[in-house]
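Methods, example record. To illustrate the input and output format used throughout this study, we show the complete record for Coiled-coil protein. The sequence lines were provided to the predictor; the line carrying structure tokens was produced by it.
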Amino acid sequence: MAFEEYFEEFSSDVQDFFANVTTFEEAYARAEKHKYGFLARNQKLIQKRYDLIYEQLKKEQLKKDKINRDAFWFYCYYCCIMLQNCHRFYGQEEEAKKLIKARVQIKQRALKDEQSNHDSFIAYLGEKFSDALIDLLKAPTRVSKTRDYVAAGNLERIYWYFCRTTITKSFLLARELQWLDRLGSALGRNIDADRIISILERPNPTLRVLSVGFFAFRFILNGAMLIKHTYGSKEEREDESYDWWMRLKGELYKRHPSMVNDIVWGTVNFITNYNSLVGIPDPTAGWIVAGFLFFDFAWLVYQRYLEEQEYRAQKSQLEREWCQAKDELTSCLEQLKNEDLKKEERDRLHARCEFLSAHIASLKKQSDQLDISWGALSSTFWFNSAAALLLAAGFTASMVLTAPVMVLACYAICTFAVAMYLSADAFKKYQEKNLQFEYANIHKDEMTPVEMAKVMKDYNQARNEFILTMAKNVLMPTLFIVTFAVCWEAALVLTAAYIGYQLYNAYTKYTETKENNENQGLTPSPSCV
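The corresponding predicted structure is encoded as:
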């Protein structure tokens, strides 16, 4: 399904909205008229436009024109209702509830993070833990949440495989070089490498099952959701706009990257992990895995291409809306030159010109923010692609090289590559803040010192967070496992220190969020309360 084929429909809806909607009630009524077909076709466009305008309003980028700003609040509210209905179509009630809260915030003009009702950090932690536990317990009843947990579990399985292999190779090499004997003498205890390796390899049969089961389960979930949303409810099937073929194309477009990946890796893992059943020798099985690790790189590049097409469609849409608004503004200004205009008509044209001026400025900033978002997403795809190449190269080299030190280095590289996958979200945030910092430097004449200071602070925080996340994912699991294997007392001290660090980090974020909530927010307009 070509993403661009729907942007005309969405663009027309945007233009019609700004031309006719003047209240929250009208925005609500208009949003409720849209059926599944429109929402499914345009969900990504609606989400992106909502994010762009919401962020603008949150930063008070339209604060100078409070009258014309109302139109953007109305549109944000409109998008919120459409996204809420879309999530309900997909059975994602938790996401729909979040959007209901956002609707309330938008209507009250309080676009800020939800204020904490708890008076202490302990209460905050308790709420977070209880929310996480409830979320976990409810996961089996939510397909999208279950799918996310399965994907996360599979990535952790891959990380464990390479981490465990690196540790076992390290212990074997250390025993061969008699380093374990020296370390044992220094600690006054016997370090049994064979026992440690045996313990680490006990989960292998279970992990082999999961290597196929994770992919099969996620494929089944995606397939079930595809059928459900293509077929639709009885009420949807009775609607005149019901088109099962369009719905099928939309679902396939959205789910095919994940489903193809699940088919490929579920099959590859079955053939290679149970190669005795299909008569494939171990070396051949290893080379099959190595070859398909390069498939991961190609598939990431393909997914980046799909996202780029969506970005280009959205960019083109914003540019077209900008040109249309510019032409209409020029036309209005020309009409105002007519001295025979009645007062009512002149006032209407003045109001329209004010709105169009604000709308043009808003579209320009939305376009800039879209560029920043795409730049961060593109960098993240290349970051993951580099991780895929590193993983494929390390695994392939481990089958070619024979020296124990080189094999160990290869598996360490593979562990590092998987840690890159685990750190992708932190990298994306860092890239986004970096691009925003560069944008702020280019437009610093338009920003106050306080805004510049906040942008720099956000950039530094995101950079430090990425560095710490990457270091944690690379070092901490291996360090914990090795320390527990060698000296459990030292491991307990290390665990306590790590928990203390995490609590301190959480407390720092809590206090910063609380300060931001106290300093952020917009005063409601009396006409909209």
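Annotations derived from this record:
Residues 1-113 form one domain.
Confidence is low (pLDDT under 50) at residues 61-65, 110-117, 520-529.
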